Amino acid sequence: MRSAAPVKPAAEAVSTPRLISLSSELAEQGPPVDVGRIATLRNAIADGSYSVNVDKIADAMLRFRAGGQ
């Protein structure tokens, strides 16, 4: 898993070319991936032990639709 880049204080201005360079580097790296979590989920799905809580999913969808998190 990729670690977060250190955050600089606002007093240290960063030039536009540097920001473009940083954004390009981040885009090339892709999103952080938790390989261990993916393996755990794949194994649970493969052996049939992965269960879906439809009530929890439905509640989350309704909260999202209502504007809450």
Describe this structure in words.
This protein is mostly helical and 69 residues long. The protein is 55% helix and 0% strand. The longest helix is centred in the first third of the chain and has 14 residues. The radius of gyration is 20 Å and the shape is flat.
Question: SSE order, as H and E?
Answer: HHH
Rg over alpha carbons = 20 Å
Number of helices: 3
Largest sheet: none
Beta percentage is: under 5%
Distance between the termini: 25 Å
What is the tally of beta strands? 0
Q: Percent range for helical residues?
A: 55-70%
List segments where confidence is low: pLDDT < 50 over at least 5 consecutive residues. none
Write the layout of secondary structure elements.
Layout: H1 16-29, H2 35-46, H3 54-65
Core attributes:
69 residues, mainly alpha
Compact summary:
With 69 residues, this protein is mainly alpha-helical.
